[in-house]
Amino acid sequence: MADRKRGTSIRPLSRVLDAIDSPAWMIDPAGDLCYLSAACEPWLGVDIDRLLGRSTLLTSATSPPAGESSTAARTEADRTEADRAVDRMVRALAAPPGLSDFARLHRSVHPPPIGSATQTPPAEQQVLFLSLGGGADHVLALAGQPPSSAVDADQLVAAEIHGELLRWQQQLPSWSQLACLVGESDACLRLRRQLRLAAACQEHLLLVGPEGSGRESAALAIHRQRQHRRFDSSRPTDSRPAVRDATWAVVDGALMDAELLDATLGALMHRLGEDDEAHGTVLVQNLDQMPFEAQSRLEQICQRFERTLCLMGMTVEGLDRLQESGRLDSALAQRLAVYAIGFVPLAGRASDIPAIASLLLQLRRQSGEGTAQRFNRQSLDALVMYPWPGDLRELEAAVRHAVRTATGSAILPAHLPLAVRSYRPSDPAAKESASIDLDRSLQRLERRLITQALERAEGNRAEAARLLNISRGRLLRKIDEYDIGEAAE
Amino acid sequence: MAVDRAPIERRHWFVCEPQSRWLELSRRFAPDTLASSDQSLSILAVDAPAMVQRIGQSRVSVALWSLETESACRAALPQLGRWMRRPAAVSVLHLVAVSPLLDADARCQLLAWPVTLLDRPEQLPRLEPLIRRFWQRHAAAT
User: What are phi and psi of A109, to 5 degrees?
Assistant: First the structure.
C-alpha cells in the first residue's frame, strides 16, 4: 500500500478511496498516475503497481516503472510489447482535454485488456474527473459516477455565479454591498479601481453616469471609506470616534438656490467650523441643473472649508460637454476636474447582470424577504436581454418584485415584471427595411453628397460649393447642421 | 464625426438552434458589433443542414450553433464537423453555445476545432471586440 501512494500527499484521502468499491485514481500535474485505489486491481485485471508512475499522456516517453526491471526472464521484444499494452491501458485512464477549463468533466472510460485476447476486458465505467485546484494540478478520477440528472444546468450556473460573488466579497469585503461594483467586465474592473483610488484620497469628485446607475451609493461608500481610513490606524481602537453622518450632506442641484443651499448646508458648515478634526462631504445631485448663483455659492463654501470639505458632484454628461454648453461654473468645473469617475450604463455591461441580480437577491434574502435563493436560467436570460433604460435602479426594482412574487426556491420568468419578461429585441433587418422615412433618407443623401464634394475639393469649401452648385453660405450651414466639418478637413 | 459611406455589403449572422433563445440574444447584441450604422446585418434562424449551405453561400458570416441539448448535439455536431473538414474558402466565425452538462466527448471534439465556446448568454456581449475585428478584417480584405 505504501508503494501505491508513493509520490503523493493524499494519504488520508487514499484511505477513504481504498475503502469504497468503485475504482478511483489520481493523476499528478505531470500527467503520471500517482495513485490507484484498491478497487482498480479487480476492475483492470492487473497488478496496479505495474501502472503506478506511468504517464497518461500520449506524447510522453514510456518508461518502465520501478520493479519492472527484474523481469529478466522475458525477451526484450516480449517486454516491449507488454510495456506497450500497459501504456495503452494507462492512457485510457487519462484526464479528458479541457478539464482545466471546466474543473469537472464526465467521460466514459473503457481500458483495453493487457493479457491475452481471451482475457475478459475491463468493464466500461462512467468516470467523473475533477481538477483539484484548477490549472495544472492533480486530477482525481472517480469511476461509477454517471452524470447526475438531479443536478441540472440551472443549478450549476447558479452555483458558478454564487462562487463568483463569494470570491468578490472575500476580495473586497468593504465594498461587498455595492451592486454596481459586481462583475468581471472591463467597465466594472475600471470602476472598481477608480472607486478604490477615490476612497484612498481626499479629492473632490465628479461622478458621471446615467440616472440610477448607483452613483449615490458609490459616493456614500467612498465617504464612509474615507472616514474609516481617517480614524483607522492613527489611534487606538477605543479612542476612535464613530463615523458620524452629520458630516455627510446630500443636496439636489435642480431644487437649489443660494439661500436654500446655505440653509441646507448650515448644520454641516457649523460642525466643520466648530470641530477642527471633522471632515465633511457634500453630494450634489443634478449638478448640471443647478442655477449659477447656487453654483457660485457652493464654490464659496468649498473655498471657505478648503481643507475639510469634499465636494462630490453627480452629472449625466462629462465635464467637457457641461463646459461647452455653459452649464457649469468655471471655478467649480476646475475644482471637479481633478478626478472624474464614469459609470457605464447597465446595458453596456450586460455580462455583469447575472452576478449583480444575484447579489441584489442575496441582500433581499439577508433582510428576510422572500424564499427565492436563485434565478433560473430563463429568468437570467430575460434579465440579460432587457436594455434597462432605468439602469441599476430598475434592476433593483425588478429583483424586489421577483422576490415578492416568487414562492419557490427559484425565480422564474413569470416572477419578473411584465416589461422585462416580455421584452423581445426586434430583427435589425426588419427595422432597416421598414425605415423609408423620406426626410431621413434625403438627409443621408445630402450628407453623403456634401462629404464627397468636400473630399473631391480637398477640403476647399468654396470649390465644394461650386461642385454642388450651391452658395458657400448654404454649404457652411449644411456642414454645421450635419457636423461633417472635421471629417472633411 | 465619421464620414458617411454607402452600405458596403449585407452581413449575415446565422443561428442554428431548436428554439429561439440565441436568435433573440443575437438580435439584442449582434448589432452592437457593427462599427457603423451604414452596415446592415441580417440575423436568421436556420436548421443544421441549411446552416452549412447558407454559410457556404455568403462571403462572410457568423455562425452560432447551439449544442445545448442532446438532440441539438446529434443534429448539429456532424454538420459542423463536415464544415470543418472543408477547405476554408469563405470566412466564417463559428460560435458554439454549450450546456454545462454537455457530454465530455462532444466537448473534446469541439476543443479540437477553431470555434469559440459560449457557456452562458451573457458571454455574447464579451465577444463584441472579437466579432468587430472579424467584420473589420473582412472589410479590409474586400
Answer: -120, 125
What per-residue confidence (pLDDT) applies to B19?
Answer: 86
User: Highest mean pLDDT range out of A24-33, A114-123, A214-223, A244-253?
Assistant: A214-223
Residues A306-364: tens digit of each pLDDT: 888 999 999 999 888 888 888 888 899 999 998 999 999 999 999 999 999 999 998 99
Is there a domain that residue B28 lies in? yes
Do strands A139-143 and A125-131 pair parallel, antiparallel, or not at all (unpaired)? antiparallel
Closest-CA distance of chain A to residue B80, Å: 19
> Chain B closest CA to A432's CA: distance in Å?
8
Q: Do A351 and B111 touch (CB under 8 A)?
A: no
> Can you give the CATH number for the domain in which B114 is found?
3.40.50.300
ipTM: 0.88
Site from A188, A346, A381 to mutate, B interface, most B CB atoms within 10 angstroms: A381
Give the separation between CA A361 and CA A374, rounded to whole angstroms.
7
In whole angstroms, give the CA distance from residue B40 to residue A436. 15
Domains of chain A (ranges; CATH) run 11-143 (3.30.450.20), 178-344 (3.40.50.300), 437-488 (1.10.10)
B123: chain A residues, CB-CB within 8 Å: 351
Is the residue at B121 inside a domain? yes
Residue found by looking up cell 452629520 in the block? A246
Of A483, A450, A455, A480, give the one whose Cα is nearest residue A465.
Answer: A450
Q: Taking CB atoms and an 8 Å limit, are A98 and B40 in contact across chains?
A: no
Q: Is the pTM of this model over 0.80?
A: no
